[in-house]
Design a protein that fits this description.
The chain is of the alpha+beta class and 139 residues long. The chain has one domain (6-138). It has 6 helices and 4 strands, in the order E-H-E-H-E-E-H-H-H-H. Strand 3 and strand 4 (69-71) form a beta hairpin. The longest helix is centred in the last third of the chain and has 19 residues, at 97-115. It is globular.
């Protein structure tokens, strides 16, 4: 097994996120350059990363091979570079393009739960995995 270039933390309860992960896995072709970590999994412990579940839900988070955490569009840039699209990724760093992508991502991240159909009226909250497990056991 190779050492991943990037650990990408994703919300496994998010249909859009799952499509992105599926695409990246396909593009990776089994080379395991990206380690995908599902923050919605019952065994995921955000405290092991010095963060809360809400921190991970608020913004796309990744961890580079050197242990440094990155967030937002930069995670996507590094993921797509890891699967061989570095030349296209470099275009996303151009002045103007970079700022526009960052602004668009912030808008998307703020509305992600609503856009993926995970709100009840105006309430958009996703309990942490351990809470969902407790809720399911109590039902």
């Amino acid at each position: 097994m190779t050492t991943p270039q990037l650990e990408m933390f994703f919300d496994g309860d998010c249909p859009l996120c799952l499509r992105e992960v599926k695409l990246l896995r396909k593009m990776d072709r089994g080379r395991e350059r990206i380690l995908f970590t599902d923050i919605a999994a019952a065994d995921f412990n955000p405290a092991e990363h010095g963060r809360t579940f809400e921190d991970f839900m608020a913004v796309m988070t990744g961890r580079q091979a050197d242990g440094q955490y990155i967030t937002g569009v930069e995670v996507f840039r590094q993921a797509y570079a890891a699967v061989g699209l570095g030349s296209i990724v470099s275009l996303t760093r151009l002045p103007g393009v970079s700022q526009a992508l960052d602004a668009a991502y912030k808008q998307f991240a703020a509305r992600r739960l609503k856009l993926t159909g995970r709100c009840d009226g105006d309430v958009c909250a996703t309990p942490p995995p351990e809470r969902r497990t407790e809720d399911a056991a109590a039902a």
